[in-house]
TrEMBL record:
Annotated GO MF terms: UDP-glucosyltransferase activity
InterPro entries in the cross-refs: UDP-glycosyltransf_plant, UDP_glucos_trans
Natural source organism: Digitaria exilis
Protein name per the record: Glycosyltransferase
Family in the record: Belongs to the UDP-glycosyltransferase family.
Keyword list, A-Z: Glycosyltransferase, Transferase
Keyword Glycosyltransferase: yes
Length: 474
């Protein structure tokens, strides 16, 4: 396979990246952009849609282009007019996916003007972007922004739907992923149980389209998900599947440090080693007021220090609730000696690198999982929606932490009690075996991304293919 040294004196391929909406999609594209433009010698452009859905996305893009300039450039991707009223009450991020999908024909002139050697598109856009790239003679790859297990589900789900239809079976049951393992019905993303759901229609179309990609990049590494990666590469999950490049965990973008450390970082500096429970459920989903109260009670009863990032709305611009009202009378006052609770945006990778953090209570969004692998922080998985139960199973199988499968997620009845939360925190924080296994995952992640490691070589092979395509940037 090629290595980073192979680009000396050769044409620099121009790789255009097309992320979709949401930090879960945007962040890995930014990390891929920096990896390609740095050690792997590519010119990179990121096609951005403005305005973004959330403030977090806008801020991240600005920081990315400032930090990675001139190696990473911005391309403006204008959207065609789109009447959102035909999808009442739809998730704003799913609406953006649909608006971008309907604007795919506008990519042709963008690619021609950029002189692209290759296009890397987001999985949620795959089925509509691949034909446009092919029409313009541009090799097109897909960056899958979740786990290899979830990629297996995406690739196989259309066949599962077809088999159910042929057998006259209604609904989605357990899904047996050939060569991988069974995904129980309870772990299948909630939207996929409704065949008319906008996301289901997108998901099935993209799953069918994957076989037409020139390759699929996935932000994981061979040692963490060996069954899924092997099954995909051997064509067991889906025959004639394109090459799979496991390139993770994609390394963090080094943004210029702030003039003053953030308040939460100063607070972490004052805490003992591995004493803090970090709690965050990501940028995409809110937790119900009732469950927030129980989580607060559990954190308080655990007796451990904690840093908690509270989210109450789907889109950050809409969040105006007061913490004191959300978490109950007197809670903030009672825990102020050993806790920091915030609704502000935090740089999660800074937190997870900090030596005072001993446990991460996470929704298991894939960016969060890959960051925990990179820094060796044990995860207590509490998935909320979408791909997160599939990812939580990867966490448990891969030795990165624990998953209490009985705990409910969005749409299920019942609350997880504060007593249950406290008990689980105490158990995992006291378990030395968890700490040792997680350290092993961290070491395997470091070996994969080091020069000559499996993920480094996968990314180098992808770059070699882009270079061989012979495209020249404009």
């Amino acid at each position: 396979m090629p290595t980073s040294g192979d680009h000396t004196g050769a044409t620099r391929p121009h790789v255009v990246l097309l992320p979709s909406a949401g930090m879960g999609h945007l962040v890995p594209f930014g990390r891929l952009a920096v990896a390609l433009s740095g050690a792997h010698g590519c010119d990179v452009s990121v096609a951005a849609v403005l305005p973004t859905v959330s403030s977090a996305e806008s801020n991240h893009l600005d920081a990315l282009f400032a930090a990675a300039s001139p190696g990473v450039r911005r391309l403006d991707f204008p959207l065609a007019p789109f009447d959102e009223s035909q999808f009442p009450n739809a998730d704003p991020f799913f609406l953006r996916f649909e608006a971008m999908r309907r604007s795919a024909p506008l990519l042709g002139p963008l690619l021609a003007g950029a002189g692209a050697s290759a296009l890397v598109t987001d999985i949620v856009l795959a089925s509509v972007v691949l034909p446009v790239a092919r029409e313009h003679g541009v090799p097109c790859y897909v960056l899958f922004t979740s786990s290899a297990a979830m990629l297996s589900l995406c690739a196989h789900f259309p066949a599962h739907v077809d088999a159910n239809a042929a057998a006259g079976r209604a609904g989605v049951g357990d899904v047996d992923l050939p060569g991988v393992y069974r995904v129980p019905k309870s772990s299948v993303p909630q939207a996929l149980h409704d065949p008319k759901h906008l996301f289901t229609q997108q998901f099935v179309a993209n799953g069918r389209g994957l076989v037409h990609a020139d390759g699929v990049l996935v932000n994981t590494f061979d040692a963490f998900e060996p069954e899924a990666i092997t099954a995909l590469r051997e064509g067991k999950v889906e025959p004639n599947f394109p090459p799979v490049f496991a390139v993770g965990p994609l390394l963090l973008v080094k943004f210029p440090p702030a003039k003053e450390p953030a308040g939460y970082m100063r607070w972490l500096d004052a805490q003992p080693a591995r004493s803090v429970v970090y709690v965050s459920f990501g940028s995409r989903k809110a937790i119900s007021p009732e469950q927030l109260r129980e989580l607060a009670a559990g954190l308080e009863a655990s007796g451990h220090r904690f840093l908690w990032v509270v989210k109450t709305t789907v889109v950050d611009r809409d969040d105006a609730a007061e913490l004191g009202d959300l978490l109950g009378d007197g809670f903030l006052e009672r825990v102020e000696e050993r806790a920091l609770v915030t609704k502000g945006w935090v740089e999660q990778e800074e937190i997870l690198q900090h030596g005072s953090v001993g446990l991460f209570i996470s929704h298991c969004g894939w960016n969060s999982v890959t960051e925990a692998t990179a820094f060796g922080v044990p995860v207590l998985a509490w998935p909320r929606f979408g791909d997160q139960r599939v990812n939580a199973a990867v966490v448990a199988r891969g030795g990165l932490g624990a998953w209490e499968e009985r705990w409910s997620w969005d749409g299920e009845e019942g609350l997880v009690s504060g007593e249950e939360v406290a008990g689980k925190i105490k158990a995992v924080m006291a378990d030395e075996t968890v700490m040792k296994k997680t350290a092993g995952v961290r070491d395997a992640a470091a070996a994969a991304t080091a020069n000559g490691g499996t993920s480094y070589r996968s990314l180098a092979e992808f770059v070699g293919r882009c270079r061989d395509a012979g495209g020249r940037h404009g």
